Task: structure prediction
Amino acid sequence: LNLGRAVIVGWMLGFGPHTLAAAPPEHGIDSGRYAEDSAAQAAWKPMSGSAPVKRALLEDGPALHLPCFFAGSTLERASWDRTVTLDLSDCRGVQFQMLCRDASPVSYFSLYFQSGNGWYAATFYPESDTDWNTIAIDKAETGTEGQPAGWGQIRTIRLSAWRGNAANTEFFLRDLRKTGVLG
Result:
């Protein structure tokens, strides 16, 4: 077996050394590494009016590209849903890496987890516009909307960028994973 070919194929499938070190398979939710735009778009569906996601190859590796087209529109938020079957009852929360070189068009970002007839929700905002930000969401600090059925029954993850002004921007996501896993 040609080791170089195996490394390239593994990287294309999302199993590069950074992924394995940063998100063990049992804790990983979404690495942000997709071989094709179509695979990223099959995983992350835009809400009405939002642009489709794309894969991105940045200088330091692959990520999920999420465009926010607020200029010339009345879009309240750019938002994407990922259907999952996820049990978060065994962890303290989640974290991910986010890069947004110009967050000024966004008033805030939200991460939602749908469970039962409701949602768990948390807001956040990146600190840096030049480096990757580690965003940590603690379950104890989330609010609820409707009647969620529990952290063990998550069926949708929603990521939203709420409009702050009428300018376009974009952000990148990688390494969404569980944190504080019991055991």
The radius of gyration is 16 Å. DSSP finds three helices and twelve strands in the chain. The longest strand covers residues 169-179. The longest helix spans residues 3-12.
